Amino acid sequence: MDSDLSPQDKKDLDKFIKFFALKTVQVIVQARLGEKINTCSSSSPTGSDWFNLAIKDIPEVTHEAKKALAGQLPGIGRSMCVEISLKTSEGDSMELETWCLEMNEKCDKDIKVSYTVYNRLSLLLKSLLAITRVTPAYKLSRKQGHDYVILYRIYFGDVQLTGLGEGFQTVRVGIVGTPIGTITLSCAYRTNLALMSSRQFERTGPIMGIIIDHYVERPFTNMAHMHPCSYRAPGEDEGGTYAGIEDSQEVCTTSFSTSPPSQVMPFSLSIISFCGSGFISVVALFFFLSFFLSVCM
Protein backbone atom coordinates (compact mmCIF):
# COMPACT_ATOMS: atom_id res chain seq x y z
CA MET A 1 0.00 0.00 0.00
CA ASP A 2 2.86 2.38 0.77
CA SER A 3 4.27 1.84 -2.73
CA ASP A 4 1.39 3.85 -4.23
CA LEU A 5 2.54 6.96 -2.37
CA SER A 6 5.22 9.31 -3.59
CA PRO A 7 8.26 9.58 -1.29
CA GLN A 8 7.19 13.07 -0.24
CA ASP A 9 3.60 12.04 0.51
CA LYS A 10 4.84 9.07 2.53
CA LYS A 11 7.18 11.31 4.49
CA ASP A 12 4.45 13.88 5.15
CA LEU A 13 1.90 11.26 6.18
CA ASP A 14 4.32 9.66 8.63
CA LYS A 15 4.97 13.07 10.19
CA PHE A 16 1.27 13.86 10.43
CA ILE A 17 0.54 10.53 12.13
CA LYS A 18 3.47 10.91 14.51
CA PHE A 19 2.54 14.37 15.72
CA PHE A 20 -1.15 13.50 15.82
CA ALA A 21 -0.30 10.61 18.15
CA LEU A 22 1.79 12.87 20.38
CA LYS A 23 -0.92 15.54 20.52
CA THR A 24 -3.56 12.89 21.21
CA VAL A 25 -1.70 11.82 24.34
CA GLN A 26 -1.31 15.43 25.48
CA VAL A 27 -5.03 16.17 25.05
CA ILE A 28 -6.10 13.06 26.99
CA VAL A 29 -3.68 13.50 29.89
CA GLN A 30 -4.25 17.23 30.22
CA ALA A 31 -8.01 16.59 30.38
CA ARG A 32 -7.32 14.58 33.57
CA LEU A 33 -5.27 17.23 35.37
CA GLY A 34 -8.22 18.09 37.59
CA GLU A 35 -8.62 21.72 36.56
CA LYS A 36 -9.82 23.66 33.56
CA ILE A 37 -7.04 24.72 31.21
CA ASN A 38 -7.16 28.10 29.51
CA THR A 39 -5.11 28.86 26.41
CA CYS A 40 -4.96 32.04 24.39
CA SER A 41 -6.19 32.01 20.82
CA SER A 42 -4.19 33.67 18.07
CA SER A 43 -5.47 35.53 15.03
CA SER A 44 -2.18 34.79 13.28
CA PRO A 45 -1.28 31.14 13.93
CA THR A 46 2.25 30.08 13.13
CA GLY A 47 3.68 26.90 11.70
CA SER A 48 4.40 25.63 15.20
CA ASP A 49 0.67 25.37 15.98
CA TRP A 50 0.21 21.77 14.94
CA PHE A 51 -3.31 20.97 13.72
CA ASN A 52 -4.32 24.61 14.32
CA LEU A 53 -4.62 24.08 18.08
CA ALA A 54 -2.66 25.95 20.74
CA ILE A 55 -1.84 22.90 22.87
CA LYS A 56 1.02 23.33 25.31
CA ASP A 57 3.06 20.17 25.74
CA ILE A 58 4.00 18.66 29.10
CA PRO A 59 7.57 17.42 28.57
CA GLU A 60 7.21 14.27 30.69
CA VAL A 61 4.10 13.25 28.79
CA THR A 62 5.84 13.74 25.45
CA HIS A 63 8.81 11.74 26.72
CA GLU A 64 6.63 8.83 27.83
CA ALA A 65 4.68 8.88 24.57
CA LYS A 66 7.87 8.71 22.51
CA LYS A 67 9.21 5.96 24.74
CA ALA A 68 6.03 3.93 24.25
CA LEU A 69 6.11 4.42 20.48
CA ALA A 70 9.81 3.48 20.39
CA GLY A 71 10.26 4.90 16.92
CA GLN A 72 7.15 3.17 15.54
CA LEU A 73 3.89 4.68 14.34
CA PRO A 74 0.34 3.50 15.04
CA GLY A 75 -0.59 1.29 12.11
CA ILE A 76 -2.41 -1.86 11.09
CA GLY A 77 -2.02 -4.26 14.01
CA ARG A 78 -0.11 -1.64 16.02
CA SER A 79 -2.35 0.34 18.39
CA MET A 80 -1.32 3.16 20.70
CA CYS A 81 -3.35 3.23 23.92
CA VAL A 82 -3.65 5.66 26.81
CA GLU A 83 -5.04 4.06 29.95
CA ILE A 84 -6.53 6.22 32.71
CA SER A 85 -6.88 4.75 36.19
CA LEU A 86 -7.79 5.78 39.71
CA LYS A 87 -5.99 5.05 42.99
CA THR A 88 -7.62 5.70 46.35
CA SER A 89 -5.91 6.81 49.54
CA GLU A 90 -6.55 3.31 50.91
CA GLY A 91 -4.53 1.81 48.07
CA ASP A 92 -7.44 0.46 46.00
CA SER A 93 -7.18 0.95 42.25
CA MET A 94 -9.34 0.57 39.17
CA GLU A 95 -9.09 1.35 35.50
CA LEU A 96 -11.46 4.05 34.28
CA GLU A 97 -10.97 4.26 30.53
CA THR A 98 -8.71 3.35 27.63
CA TRP A 99 -8.23 5.56 24.59
CA CYS A 100 -7.06 3.76 21.48
CA LEU A 101 -5.47 5.13 18.30
CA GLU A 102 -5.30 2.44 15.63
CA MET A 103 -5.52 1.83 11.90
CA ASN A 104 -7.40 -0.68 9.76
CA GLU A 105 -6.78 -1.85 6.21
CA LYS A 106 -9.47 0.24 4.50
CA CYS A 107 -7.58 2.69 2.26
CA ASP A 108 -8.58 5.85 0.47
CA LYS A 109 -6.05 5.95 -2.35
CA ASP A 110 -7.55 9.07 -3.92
CA ILE A 111 -7.30 11.27 -0.86
CA LYS A 112 -4.63 13.97 -0.75
CA VAL A 113 -2.19 13.73 2.12
CA SER A 114 -1.58 17.45 1.92
CA TYR A 115 -3.86 18.92 2.80
CA THR A 116 -7.02 16.86 3.21
CA VAL A 117 -5.65 14.28 5.65
CA TYR A 118 -4.02 17.00 7.72
CA ASN A 119 -7.22 19.05 8.01
CA ARG A 120 -9.28 16.00 8.94
CA LEU A 121 -6.77 15.03 11.61
CA SER A 122 -7.09 18.57 12.91
CA LEU A 123 -10.84 18.25 13.35
CA LEU A 124 -10.46 14.78 14.86
CA LEU A 125 -8.16 16.26 17.49
CA LYS A 126 -10.75 18.97 18.23
CA SER A 127 -13.40 16.27 18.64
CA LEU A 128 -11.10 14.44 21.06
CA LEU A 129 -10.66 17.66 23.03
CA ALA A 130 -14.43 17.77 23.54
CA ILE A 131 -15.09 14.09 24.21
CA THR A 132 -12.36 13.79 26.85
CA ARG A 133 -14.50 16.18 28.90
CA VAL A 134 -17.77 14.24 28.77
CA THR A 135 -16.71 10.73 29.80
CA PRO A 136 -17.13 9.77 33.51
CA ALA A 137 -13.39 10.01 34.19
CA TYR A 138 -13.45 13.76 33.58
CA LYS A 139 -15.86 14.37 36.45
CA LEU A 140 -13.80 12.10 38.68
CA SER A 141 -10.61 13.93 37.76
CA ARG A 142 -12.19 17.27 38.73
CA LYS A 143 -12.93 15.87 42.20
CA GLN A 144 -9.62 14.15 42.86
CA GLY A 145 -7.98 15.13 46.13
CA HIS A 146 -7.23 13.41 49.42
CA ASP A 147 -9.55 10.49 48.64
CA TYR A 148 -8.06 9.50 45.29
CA VAL A 149 -5.79 10.57 42.44
CA ILE A 150 -5.83 9.92 38.71
CA LEU A 151 -3.00 8.03 36.99
CA TYR A 152 -2.18 7.24 33.40
CA ARG A 153 0.02 4.99 31.33
CA ILE A 154 0.79 4.79 27.62
CA TYR A 155 1.37 1.49 25.89
CA PHE A 156 1.82 0.26 22.33
CA GLY A 157 0.37 -3.06 21.21
CA ASP A 158 -2.80 -5.05 21.83
CA VAL A 159 -5.67 -3.16 23.44
CA GLN A 160 -6.33 -4.28 27.03
CA LEU A 161 -9.93 -3.75 28.15
CA THR A 162 -10.48 -6.51 30.72
CA GLY A 163 -9.66 -4.13 33.58
CA LEU A 164 -12.70 -1.97 32.78
CA GLY A 165 -15.07 -4.54 34.27
CA GLU A 166 -18.42 -5.74 33.01
CA GLY A 167 -20.71 -3.45 31.07
CA PHE A 168 -18.08 -0.99 29.89
CA GLN A 169 -19.11 1.27 27.03
CA THR A 170 -17.27 2.38 23.92
CA VAL A 171 -17.47 5.57 21.88
CA ARG A 172 -15.81 6.28 18.57
CA VAL A 173 -14.31 9.74 18.45
CA GLY A 174 -13.90 9.62 14.68
CA ILE A 175 -12.09 8.16 11.69
CA VAL A 176 -9.83 9.60 9.01
CA GLY A 177 -9.10 7.76 5.78
CA THR A 178 -5.57 7.80 4.38
CA PRO A 179 -3.85 6.11 1.41
CA ILE A 180 -2.35 3.47 3.72
CA GLY A 181 -5.38 2.76 5.93
CA THR A 182 -8.11 4.34 8.04
CA ILE A 183 -7.10 5.98 11.31
CA THR A 184 -9.58 5.27 14.11
CA LEU A 185 -9.71 6.97 17.51
CA SER A 186 -11.99 5.48 20.16
CA CYS A 187 -12.53 5.23 23.89
CA ALA A 188 -13.74 2.40 26.13
CA TYR A 189 -14.82 3.53 29.60
CA ARG A 190 -15.96 1.92 32.83
CA THR A 191 -19.61 2.22 33.83
CA ASN A 192 -19.45 0.35 37.16
CA LEU A 193 -17.89 2.58 39.81
CA ALA A 194 -18.73 0.31 42.75
CA LEU A 195 -15.24 0.72 44.20
CA MET A 196 -15.98 4.35 45.05
CA SER A 197 -18.41 4.88 47.92
CA SER A 198 -21.00 7.64 47.79
CA ARG A 199 -19.31 9.29 50.75
CA GLN A 200 -16.09 9.62 48.79
CA PHE A 201 -17.88 11.23 45.87
CA GLU A 202 -19.53 13.80 48.14
CA ARG A 203 -16.34 14.92 49.80
CA THR A 204 -14.72 17.92 48.17
CA GLY A 205 -11.17 18.08 49.44
CA PRO A 206 -8.52 20.27 47.82
CA ILE A 207 -7.73 19.33 44.25
CA MET A 208 -4.26 17.81 43.93
CA GLY A 209 -4.03 17.62 40.16
CA ILE A 210 -2.73 14.55 38.38
CA ILE A 211 0.10 12.30 39.37
CA ILE A 212 1.88 11.60 36.11
CA ASP A 213 2.62 7.93 36.47
CA HIS A 214 4.19 5.44 34.13
CA TYR A 215 4.54 1.72 34.54
CA VAL A 216 5.40 -1.14 32.23
CA GLU A 217 3.88 -4.19 33.86
CA ARG A 218 0.18 -5.00 33.92
CA PRO A 219 -1.48 -2.30 36.05
CA PHE A 220 -2.38 -2.98 39.67
CA THR A 221 -0.55 -6.31 39.87
CA ASN A 222 2.02 -4.61 42.08
CA MET A 223 1.57 -0.98 43.02
CA ALA A 224 5.26 -0.74 43.94
CA HIS A 225 6.01 -0.46 40.22
CA MET A 226 4.20 2.89 40.01
CA HIS A 227 6.49 5.91 40.29
CA PRO A 228 5.08 9.45 40.10
CA CYS A 229 7.34 11.74 38.10
CA SER A 230 5.40 15.01 38.25
CA TYR A 231 3.02 16.62 40.66
CA ARG A 232 1.22 19.96 40.67
CA ALA A 233 0.12 21.22 44.08
CA PRO A 234 -3.02 23.32 44.64
CA GLY A 235 -2.58 26.98 43.80
CA GLU A 236 0.58 26.41 41.77
CA ASP A 237 0.87 28.31 38.52
CA GLU A 238 -2.50 30.03 38.59
CA GLY A 239 -4.17 30.99 35.36
CA GLY A 240 -3.78 27.72 33.51
CA THR A 241 -0.05 27.95 32.88
CA TYR A 242 1.76 25.02 34.42
CA ALA A 243 5.39 24.54 35.28
CA GLY A 244 7.21 22.25 32.92
CA ILE A 245 4.99 22.88 29.91
CA GLU A 246 6.61 23.64 26.59
CA ASP A 247 5.38 25.16 23.37
CA SER A 248 4.47 22.83 20.53
CA GLN A 249 7.45 24.05 18.55
CA GLU A 250 9.75 22.20 20.93
CA VAL A 251 8.13 18.94 19.89
CA CYS A 252 7.96 19.78 16.20
CA THR A 253 11.67 20.40 15.95
CA THR A 254 12.42 16.76 16.69
CA SER A 255 11.80 15.76 13.09
CA PHE A 256 9.65 18.41 11.39
CA SER A 257 10.24 22.08 11.98
CA THR A 258 6.74 23.41 11.40
CA SER A 259 3.28 22.24 10.48
CA PRO A 260 2.29 22.82 6.84
CA PRO A 261 1.90 26.60 6.37
CA SER A 262 -1.16 26.40 4.15
CA GLN A 263 -3.13 24.24 6.59
CA VAL A 264 -4.46 27.27 8.47
CA MET A 265 -8.12 27.67 7.61
CA PRO A 266 -11.19 29.15 9.29
CA PHE A 267 -12.50 26.94 12.06
CA SER A 268 -16.07 26.92 10.74
CA LEU A 269 -14.97 25.89 7.25
CA SER A 270 -12.94 23.08 8.74
CA ILE A 271 -16.04 21.66 10.42
CA ILE A 272 -18.21 21.94 7.30
CA SER A 273 -15.63 20.30 5.06
CA PHE A 274 -14.97 17.43 7.41
CA CYS A 275 -18.54 16.64 8.35
CA GLY A 276 -19.68 16.89 4.76
CA SER A 277 -17.29 14.10 3.90
CA GLY A 278 -18.69 11.88 6.63
CA PHE A 279 -15.42 11.25 8.42
CA ILE A 280 -16.63 11.93 11.94
CA SER A 281 -19.28 10.04 13.86
CA VAL A 282 -22.54 11.71 14.87
CA VAL A 283 -21.71 11.10 18.51
CA ALA A 284 -18.38 12.90 18.24
CA LEU A 285 -19.99 15.85 16.47
CA PHE A 286 -22.70 16.10 19.13
CA PHE A 287 -20.17 16.10 21.97
CA PHE A 288 -17.98 18.60 20.15
CA LEU A 289 -20.78 21.08 19.47
CA SER A 290 -22.08 20.75 23.04
CA PHE A 291 -18.62 21.49 24.40
CA PHE A 292 -18.08 24.40 21.99
CA LEU A 293 -21.40 26.02 22.91
CA SER A 294 -20.79 25.60 26.64
CA VAL A 295 -17.43 27.35 26.33
CA CYS A 296 -18.88 30.21 24.30
CA MET A 297 -21.74 30.73 26.72
UniProtKB/TrEMBL annotation:
Assigned GO CC terms: Atg1/ULK1 kinase complex; cytosol; phagophore assembly site
One of the protein's GO biological processes: regulation of cell population proliferation
Keywords for this protein: Autophagy, Cytoplasm, Membrane, Transmembrane, Transmembrane helix
Pfam families in alphabetical order: ATG13
Autophagy-related protein 13 N-terminal domain location: 95-192
Transmembrane region(s): 267-293
Subcellular location: Cytoplasm, Cytosol; Preautophagosomal structure
InterPro entries tied to this protein: ATG13, Atg13_N, HORMA_dom_sf
Entry's family note: Belongs to the ATG13 family. Metazoan subfamily.
UniProt name for this protein: Autophagy-related protein 13
Gene field: LOC107677120
